[in-house]
Amino acid sequence: MDYRQLGRSGLKVPELTLGTGTFGGGGAFFSQWGDVDVKGASRLIDIAIEHGITMFDSADGYSAGAAEEILGAALKGKRDQVLISTKGTFRNGKGVNDIGNSRIHIVQAVEKSLKRLGTDVIDLYQLHGFDTHTPVEEALRALDDLVTAGKIRYIGCSNFSGWHLMKSLAHSDRHGLARYVAHQAYYSLVGRDYETELMPLGIDQGVGAVVWSPLGWGRLTGKIRRGAPRPQTSRLNSQLVVDNGPLVDEEYLYNVVDALDVVAAETGKTVPQIALNWLLRRPTVSTVIVGARDEKQLIENLGAVGWSLTAEQVAKLDAASARPKPYPYWHQALFPALGAQGHV
Questions:
Q1: Residue 342: its pLDDT value, please?
Q2: How far apart are CA 116 and CA 251, in angstroms?
Q3: Closest Cα to residue 117, out of 174, 74, 150?
Q4: Is 118 left (phi over 0), alpha (psi -120 to 50) or beta?
Q5: Which residues pair with 155 in a beta bridge?
Q6: Tens digit of pLDDT for each residue in 261-287?
Q7: 215 with 304: CB under 8 angstroms?
Q8: Which of 124, 126, 263, 279 could form a disulfide with 87 if both were Cys (CB 3.0 to 4.6 A apart)?
Q9: Which residues pair with 86 in a beta bridge?
Q10: What is the H or E stretch that residue 87 is in?
Q11: For residue 227, what pLDDT is reported?
Q12: Across the chain, which distance is largest between two alpha carbons, in Å?
């Protein structure tokens, strides 16, 4: 396992991070991801640490906090060996202030996450989404105070648009506040929107990508192919999961999987291993979050590191997954001499 700088910070993180969306299985949505309990989580964490995965990502909204509780219990006696990242923003209570990025909610959410995780400090705390009702200066001051208090070590955000992120970075720079060093963002071979604006921003501003759903919301497992029936065990069998995830045109998906199959035959690697390895070659990517229902899935994901696709194989995958650029980026691409897109 190689380790990378998290954005422009001094923190080094493993190429792969183990996500905890499969822990707990609470509610109609997360029950489709998995129902790993403390015993199962302990086993997955032991395997992960043995192979160099030393960062574990959660959120207070995963199974209504149960994922954090399970992670905390499974890490007992191992806390000094690992990094914990978690997130908060979305509703986690019935009160009017139990949602958003206000000072009151951020502080309360962090305190509750610390308790569930059984730790005194969170290594990376990320706002799970942008809150248009709260001024960025309020959210950033609250996060900076928590860093100063020693309850958070680094801060990041998740699911921000480019202007959301840039406005926040500018405010931190202007007022000397803690700065986002990570952006937890959706990015996959069948979801390359990140490259349009957020990747150039990350390069320019030193923000590392913490990639979620790198297998395209379960579409790049190698089990979904043209003309083949949908596998019996798949989160995509749940309409609730489909409706709350990225939309992917089926023909486009099949074309990408066809290219993955070609590369799989050339490398002897599996479709998900190739999809993950492709991401690890992309600019700004600091770590890729992988989830696992069981040991078999985790071991397969671990096979994505320790080797590299060739330039020709990357080009083949790039071509199969390319999509038209939205405005103004298609127009900027007409003038490469100006360099607007040349660094991506």
A1: 46
A2: 43
A3: 74
A4: left
A5: 125, 180
A6: 999 999 999 999 999 999 999 999 999
A7: no
A8: 126
A9: 125
A10: strand 83-88
A11: 83
A12: 57
Instruction: With beta carbons less than 8 A apart as the criterion, state whether 203 and 174 touch.
Output: no
Counting Cα atoms < 13 Å in the Cβ hemisphere of 162 gives 13
Q: Are 29 and 77 spatial neighbours (Cβ–Cβ below 8 Å)? A: no
CA gap 173, 163 in Å, rounded: 15
pLDDT at 231: 77
Residue 40 CB coordination number (10 Å):
19
Beta bridge partners of 289: 17
Q: Which residues are catalytic?
A: 62
- As a whole number of angstroms, the distance between CA 136 and CA 145 comes to 14
AA identity, residue 196: T
8 Å CB contact between 301 and 290:
yes
Q: 210 with 85: CB under 8 angstroms? A: yes
Contact 153, 121 (CB under 8 A): yes
Delineate the domains of the chain, giving CATH numbers in brackets. 3-338 (3.20.20.100)
β-bridge pairing 3-5 and 12-14: antiparallel
Residue among 284, 316, 274 at smallest CA distance from 211? 284
pLDDT at 15: 98
**Within the chain, which residues score under 50 in pLDDT?**
342-344
How many CA atoms, within 13 angstroms, populate the side-chain half-sphere of residue 114? 16
Residue reference for tokens 């690697």: 269
Q: Is the peptide bond before 135 cis (omega within 30 degrees of 0)?
A: no
Strand, coil or helix: 74: helix
